[in-house]
Structures are given as C-alpha cells and as structure tokens.
Design goal:
The complex is a heterodimer of chains A (344) and B (305). Chain A has 15 helices and no strands. Chain A is mainly α. Chain A has a single domain (61-73, 84-320), classed as MetI-like (MetI-like fold). Chain B is an alpha/beta fold and 305 residues long. Chain B is 29% helix and 24% strand. In chain B, a hairpin with a 2-residue loop joins strand 2 and strand 3 (67-79). The longest helix of chain B is centred in the last third of the chain and has 14 residues, at 204-217. Chain B is globular and about 55 Å long. Chain B starts with 10 loop residues before the first strand and ends with a helix. The chains are: A mainly alpha (344), B alpha/beta (305). The interface between A and B is medium-sized, with 23 and 32 residues.
Chain lengths: 344, 305
Amino acid sequence: MAAEQSSGGALAPVGLAVARPRRQSTSSWPLVDRVSYWLCWATGIALCAIALGIVLYMLIKGISYLQPSLFVHSPSPSVRQSEAGGFLDPIVGTFILTVLGIAIAAPAGVAIAAWLSEYARPRALARAVESAIEMIAGVPSVVLAIFGLLVFSQGFLGFLSQRAANGAVYGRSFFGASIVMAVLALPLIVGATREGLAQVPDHMREAAYALGKTRASCIRHVLLPAIRPNIASGVVLGMGRIIGDTAIVTIILGVTLRNEAVGSVPILGTLRGTGSTLTSYVYTNSPAGEGNAPQKAYAAAFVLLMIVLLLNALVTRLTSGEDRPERWRRMAKLSALVRTAWNR
Amino acid sequence: MEPLSPPPPVRKIAVDRDPFVATPPASGNGAVATPPNPLQTTRTRHALADVRERMRLESVWLAYGEKWVVRDVSLPVRRGEVLALIGASGSGKTTLLRSLNRLTEVTAGAARAGRITLDGEEIHELEVNDLRRRVSMVFQQPNPFPMSIFDNVAYALAERPAHGRRRRRRTPELEQAAADALRRAGLYDEVGDDLGRPALRLSGGQQQRLCIARALAAEPEVLLLDEPCSALDPISTATIEQLIVGLRESVAVVIVTHNLQQALRVADHVAFMHLGELVEYGTSEQIFERPTMQRTRDYIGGVFG
C-alpha cells in the first residue's frame, strides 16, 4: 500500500510507467465464496448502520428532552412530568457504584492476574482460579445479583445494609451492589492485566532477576508499571460494565426513587442505603417500567450512552499506539501542564 | 555426541536447595586429550597488579532436562582481568555464564553438578538475590526497563542494604550514586542533562551502556556479559569494549562472545568451548597465536563456527 502510493507520487520518474497491482476481482471465485464475501460485507455495513442508528436516534430524542435542570434535581414522585424532577440521584448512584466497584475490583483483579501470570503455583490452584474467573465472566449478572442478595441478607452482614425492627437484614445497599459490581468487573481487569503481562518479554524479568531482585519486586517495580495502559484499559472496560448493568441495580440496590441514606452518618449512611442508577432510571421511566415518562428515559439514556461512548474512546486511546515512549512524553507533558496550572 | 554412562549425580536446582554434593564421571567422553588445567595459570598481558580469584568453577556440569549442555568445565574468574568464553553456537557458553549467578534456575528442568564458588563459598549456599547483586549480568539484547533512565539505575540501586529496603525518589545520595554508575558506564556525558527521559528512547548502544550502568550500580564483584555487542553497530561496540577493558580494575569480567576479534581485543584469558566441553584455556595471545588443540586451531581459523 505504502509502496504503491510512493511510486505513484511525485517521486516517480517522468515517462516511466508505474505498474500498479490490479484490484482482485471476485468474478473468478466460486459462487459460494462470492456470495459469502458479499454477505460478510453486507453484515459489516449493517452493523455500522445499527450503531449509527442508535447514536443518532438517542442524539435526536435525547437532546430534545435534555435540560440542564435534569442534572441538578432529584427525582420526585409525581404524575405530572414537570414536577417529577431530574436524575441527580441516579447519576450520583452510578458514580458511587462505579467508583466503589472499581476500587474493590482493580486491586483484586491486578493481584489475581499477577499471581496467575507470574507464580501460578500450585498448578491445580491456578487452574481452579482460572476457571473460576472464566465462570464469573460467563455468569449473567442477574444470577450474580440474586446470589449477592442471598449473601448480603445474612445476619452477620447487616452492617452493610439496614436491619428491620425484627432483626431481618434488608440486604439491599450501595455496599452490597458495589461488591457484586466488583465481581462483575473483575474478569475484565484480570484479563487485561494478564494480557499485558504476557506481552512483557521474558528478558525484562531476567534483567530484574539478574540485578538481584525478587519476583515480587520485579512485579511491583518493573512489570506493573510497564503494563499500566493495559490495567487502565481493563479498569475502563470494567467501569463500562458496571455503568451499563441493570440487573444488579434492580435486585441489590433496591431501585428507590432517591438515594435513601440509613441513619444520620453522612457518607456511610448513603452507602448503607438504597438508591438507583441511570440504567434503573431509564428502565423505570420507560414505558416498560411504572414511571411511564419516556422523555425522561430518553434523556437519561442519552447521558448513559455518552458516558459509555466516552469510556470506549478512552479504552481505544489507551490500548492503541504501541509507541510507549511517545505516550510517556505526552503524559509527561500533560502532567507538567497540570502541575503549572495547579501552582498558579 | 555419545550418551554418557552412568549419568553424573545431579541436583535439580529448582526443586531442592540443599548444598550440592556430587561426583561427575571421571571420563567416558574421550574428547579432551590433555584436559586443560585452567585453575593454575599465570598472569597475562593486561592483567593488573592486583589480580584476585573471585569465582572458581570446578568440574561443572549443566543440564536442561536430560540434555547435558556443559560438561566438566573448570575455570577461574579473576578480578583484574577479562575472561572471554568463545565457541560455536550451542557450545554451552551462555548456559555456563548464566549458571554463574544462578540465572539458569529460571529455566525449568535446569540441573547442575560440580562446584561453583564465589570467594570460596558455594553459590548455592548463598541467598540467590544476594548472589545476583554480587554477580550481575548484562544480556545480548539491550533490555532497559520501560521507565526513565534515572529510574532504571535507581531501581538497581535501591533495595540494596546500604540504601535501605525502600526505593527512594531522587534523594541527593541516590542521584549521586546513579550518576556515578552512569559515569562508569560512560553514558553520563550523553544523557546527564535529562535523566528523566524514557530509557527506551535511547539508541541501542546507549541502551546497552545503560544496562551496564544498571548492572554496575549495585557494585557487583563479578560482571557477566552475554554477547553484549552482538546487537550493536561497530561504533557502539568499540565504546563498550573500551568500557569493558576499563572495568577490569574493579570487577571480574566474564564475557561470552561470538566475535573472535572482540575476544582478542578485550580478553586477558580466553576459554574455548565446543559442544559443552572446555577445549582450551589460555591467555588470549596463546589461544589466538599458538593454540595447542586442533579444534581450537580449526575454530580460530574459521573451519567451523
């Protein structure tokens, strides 16, 4: 491709015929191959059309119903749309779940991946851990949610949610939902980290060992810093997964209209309490839910879509471009910029 | 290569860590007519006044799984001189080199018979990370860590007892030590103005010198070099060769090389290996000008290799 372009460019000597390879025609192919080829082509186009359709539809529908006031008002129970408030609480709920879930999943996921890639002894245990991760990755989130509710309703875990007067544990809270969300995001972080570790050539490890470094030191000071972009993309993928999940929210977060704190302790109370997220807000306000306020649902869905698209773009940015030094330079520039801005 | 019978008693390095006791077979391969006795040799042309034996290999056998790749090699490693290991591919040079700081253990199934001592102590009785700080290594491919130049050297420096367990960020003493290591590797003049640069942005030759600086930072007693110039251009090679010759004063240097000219240029003693056996050992003049063994003559003369 590049050679073709350069030979066709201004550098080609005058009067010299430039031979270009003809594009291969499918006419010589067997019929089955030709049909399959065009089918592949058509499905690809169709997929693009669907993706574009979703974005455009949500853009048009969402923007027309989107008002700044929606972001700052809590939802309130009212049949009249003008009095039904905004989706401040769901946004806060999504934020809490994501931050808390990742705060649990990221260290655990990186640790599991490091152990699997660098130690993995005894082998049987490593295999068991591996299949457990695969299993969790394959379990539908609604199953995780039901299981989570079962666990967090146990008496001794009452401190994570609230107790009824008779001592029964309610089990639904931001704490519980975050932990289950962490389980949901875990396989993605483990996968991305392991992939990164597999990419680090063995001579890098040997270099560390040859300096008299322990395996643990090598992991902490050489390997993990080297695969920071991989870990970051795993984290962002996990965030996307958490933000997009509805089943866990409906089952373990309680889907109350507002984020209801338990007790009077400010942050802890909220975390022990129930709430809702953008996904559950979209569901309850859609014609399928009881709210039946499609405009609100569209606006919230638009916000949700934007967040997820932003995260996707972030993943692409983090994973593309294997030129590490180049990226470092950019990051160094950025951090210098931030530092000067901060000092000012 | 005919199979050995009986196989020498072997200690699986990775499995148990008891002190090794074994007696390799006395004969049976019939390869060496008059086995060299490298453990008693005299001083050589470059050799400095203060020549001291740091490491000693006595009848070392090394295997990967069932395959013996080094057979009955005895060598001295001395401070004040450079020892070059030469030989064709597959002659066991690199394996022998890696065994000196027990890096062979990284490979599954590696086993060893014979004694290797560092200042009189069997290396398997030393703590492995301690040994590797004392016997440092530079590899064929420049392999700086993907971090800044400073961090590369600082990482090698930190966690060494004198500096405490914790890695410290840019303390004056750490900076001084890093700069010293870079100076010894002849890199400071080129990169000293910006040590925060990522190491991977350096040229190949600079990267390799950074690796040498990193290896020197922990002030090792022995420096192992595994074909350090094979991935580099002639100018970088010349720089590094000068560096190696200069390092003899403070560390014992062992270099594996495919390049005979290089061995002639940098080495005081040369050990020629073939198919895992030590064929000939002597001063570099003696090996290159008056080799006693036919196989050495053939290799030096380019008949094989």
